[in-house]
Amino acid sequence: DEFYFTMGQSPPGATLNETGTGLIFYQGSSDFGFRFPNPRVYTTAPTRIANKYETLVSVRAPVGDINMAIDKCCLGRGVAAFRYKYDETFYSYTYYKLRSLMLLIKQFEDCGTVFGSIGKDDFKSIVNLIPPKRLIDEFQKSVRVLDDKVMLNSIQIRTLTNLRDTLLPKLMSGEIRLNLDSHD
């Protein structure tokens, strides 16, 4: 009743690449990081899409891992994306509400014949309390400031990590030299 959600659908294997061509593709929880997924695979033929800030939940073993899309992305069949029905900018509320439902979601881990999974009808059957709109608004206003800082820090860490991984081999090989003499 509170969220729109999209179940993932994997694009054809021939459209996948690791060169950064196309849209970021997340197959499942193996792509998840601390709060945001780690891009490693891309697709030139995206099927199901999640927009920036939507909450991502793993729906196949392991069921119930959670992240937030830091960019528009393609969802594989191991991921579902959620957004608040009444205001898509309420991404903090969506993220934390789904975290609060993890025990209910994770019960589906033991429900597959070979491995755990949760489907669209399973999500629809989860019963939970919906707080009054006033409380949702207050929560979002308070928490979004903190979440935005976490996101900014995560982006900066990712940028610095990429810079380190690019420059360090060049420094070690001598391809780049630093002048350490200072004439201050």
How does this structure look, described?
By secondary structure, this protein is α+β, with helices and mostly antiparallel strands. Helices cover 34% and strands 18% of the residues. The chain has 4 helices and 9 strands. The protein has helices spanning 91-100, 102-106, 120-125, 133-173, and strands at 3-7, 16-17, 23-26, 41-43, 48-50, 55-58, 66-68, 73-75, 79-84. A 5-stranded mixed β-sheet has the order 2-4-3-8-5, with no helix packed on it. It has a 4-stranded antiparallel β-sheet with strand order 1-9-6-7, with helices on one face. A hairpin with a 7-residue loop joins strand 6 (55-58) and strand 7 (66-68). It is globular and about 65 Å long. The mean pLDDT is 92.
Are there runs of 5+ residues with pLDDT below 50, and where? none
Question: What's the alpha carbon Rg, rounded to whole Å?
Answer: 20 Å
Structural class: alpha+beta
Shape: globular
Order of helices and strands: EEEEEEEEEHHHH
What share of the residues does DSSP label as strand, in percent? 15-25%
- Whole-number mean pLDDT: 92
Total DSSP E strands: 9
Distance between the termini: 65 Å
Helix content: 25-40%
Give a quick account of the main beta sheet: strands, pairing sense, barrel closure.
5 strands, mixed
